[in-house]
Design goal:
The protein is of the alpha+beta class. 38% of the residues lie in helices and 24% in strands. It is built from 9 helices and 11 strands. The protein has helices at 2-8, 19-28, 84-89, 111-120, 122-136, 139-150, 155-161, 183-193, 213-221, and strands spanning 30-34, 39-41, 50-56, 59-64, 70-76, 81-82, 97-100, 104-110, 176-178, 197-201, 207-212.
């Protein structure tokens, strides 16, 4: 337990949690081993049941393009947490294909416990939303990720997507607002832009979180909050 706790204190964003909370998290972690070159997750296919914290070995993560070439290859080493963005922002589907590069050991945290931490600790939660925002500033990354979000709009559109050429598909720019923007203005901006998600920036213009239609419904309208805040 002590070794696991000491390790977890070095892992972002678990390092922001108190030792008391980390002790409880340690009891929830499941150790999983993967053989070298095993494909663990398939992009936009595999449903993640939780998140992985790499303890030994490494993950190789990438996108397959239309010709099955690996794109945007990244190596994730011990201390990296994989799956948070996929669970929170991609309907639990793995955003990338992931392969074990060596005999790899991970600590697995089930998604219900992971989501519980996100709901209870804002700084922990915003680590993943901010990381997603930074990644989406990369045009190539956004090229592979954005279609998955377009599919949510309607099933007809998703069916038609596969018969289109890449150059005919239009992508939207990321829309942001300062963190001190009144709630009613963010809602007005989302309506004007016809978007369901608005990213929030700090004084340094760095993305620190996001607002969605569901956020406004559950946390503002349902709770009768003052929209002038």
């Amino acid at each position: 337990m002590n070794d696991k706790l000491a390790f977890l204190k070095t892992v972002k964003p678990f390092h922001v949690l108190s030792e008391e909370v980390l002790v409880e998290v340690c009891e929830l972690l499941q150790e999983v081993k993967y053989d070298k070159e095993l494909v663990i997750y398939h992009q936009e296919i595999t449903k993640l049941k939780g998140i992985d914290i790499i303890v030994e070995g490494a993950y190789q993560a990438f996108f397959y393009d239309s010709e099955q070439n690996k794109r945007l290859i990244e190596e994730y080493t011990p201390g990296f947490c994989y799956g948070g963005i996929s669970v929170l922002l991609n309907k639990k589907q793995s955003i990338r294909t992931v392969i074990a590069r060596k005999d790899t050991v991970v600590y697995f945290l089930p998604k219900n416990h992971f989501k519980g931490l996100c709901q209870a600790f804002d700084e922990f939660f915003h680590f993943f939303t901010a990381e997603f925002g930074r990644k989406m500033l990369n045009d190539e990354y956004a090229h592979f990720v954005r279609p998955a979000y377009n599919f949510e709009e309607n099933y007809i559109a998703s069916d038609q997507f596969f018969s289109k050429k890449i150059e005919t598909i239009a992508y939207r720019n990321i829309i942001t607002c300062p963190e001190n923007t009144p709630i009613f203005e963010t809602a007005r901006s989302m309506a004007r832009q016809k978007i369901g998600c608005l990213f929030v920036t700090d004084t340094a213009n760095q993305i620190i979180g996001y607002i969605t239609d569901i956020t406004l419904r559950d946390n503002v309208v349902a709770r009768q909050q003052d929209v002038r805040q």
